[in-house]
Design brief:
258 residues, alpha/beta, Rossmann fold, eight-stranded mixed beta sheet, 8 helices
Length: 258
């Protein structure tokens, strides 16, 4: 199984839709999505993701299921410096690096700032919602302390599963692919949940451009136990191949021109 995350197109945040550039990005994305074998599509309820999904799926005669918890992780927290509010995933580098708890997958939400916005509760809402979707397809979290999922075994112990990583071609254990149209902030919450990395590290250390594609593949090295491993992060091939520069929306600078 592959989990495919797509960020919405270049946004018009004021009207919660896409700019003209965002529309063009989504149309180019549609040519890429049309080539995939997708089991099901899911989408955030917000306008910019709904429009992206609509355009990206326009030739497929398919509909995406709307999941409310897949909306942007836009929960405000107290900003002690300004006395106002700020987004939980927007920190100045000095503040991020001066707090060790932000580097811990278990402690990041225990700071005074994160507690002010009930970040642990919101994080768990997203993760529990996501796990409920995976459960539909037979993948269930083994424990709350790990990112291992149990499933119906796709091979037997006698198969040489451990050492096949040196082969160019692998046995396809589960051909189903799920696509999630969402947002940068919530996407990194889900990657945090699936890889065991603090979401603050992902928010601060990684960027994915509008309509970029991120793929996690199921890796089953023990029969019936799966982890999802990142194979592709923020790929914009569908834009670059058509000479459409990726948007820098969400990045404090310019995106590398490829």
């Amino acid at each position: 199984m592959h989990l495919i995350f797509i960020r919405h197109g270049d946004p018009d945040y004021e009207h919660d839709t896409l700019t003209s550039k965002g529309v063009q990005e989504a149309l180019l994305l549609s040519e890429r999505v049309a080539k995939w074998n997708v089991q099901d599509f899911f989408v955030s309820p917000l306008g910019r993701t709904q429009k992206t999904a609509e355009l990206a799926m326009k030739n497929l005669n398919r509909k995406a299921e709307t999941l409310n918890w897949l909306q942007e992780f836009y929960y405000p927290i107290a900003d002690e410096k300004s006395g106002g509010k700020r987004i939980a995933w927007d920190w100045m580098p000095e503040d991020f690096y001066s707090e060790e708890k932000y580097f811990s997958k278990d402690l990041w939400h225990q700071t005074k700032a994160m507690k002010s916005g009930n970040m642990e509760e919101h994080y768990n809402e997203v993760c529990n919602g996501f796990d409920s979707v995976l459960k539909r397809y037979g993948y269930e979290k083994k424990s709350s302390s790990s990112s291992i999922y149990t499933c119906v075994p796709h091979f037997v112990k006698e198969e040489p599963s451990v050492d096949t990583h040196i082969n160019a071609c692998q046995k396809n254990l589960d051909e189903r692919n799920l696509v999630f149209f969402c947002h940068l902030g919530v996407m990194f919450v889900l990657l945090s949940h699936l890889t065991g990395i603090s979401p603050v590290q992902l928010w601060q250390g990684f960027f994915v451009a509008p309509t970029s594609v991120t793929v996690l593949g199921a890796e089953e090295r023990v029969p019936g136990e799966v982890v999802f491993r990142t194979q592709m992060l923020g790929d914009c091939t569908h834009l670059i191949s058509q000479k459409e520069p990726p948007s820098s929306s969400g990045f404090f600078g310019n995106v590398f021109p490829y």
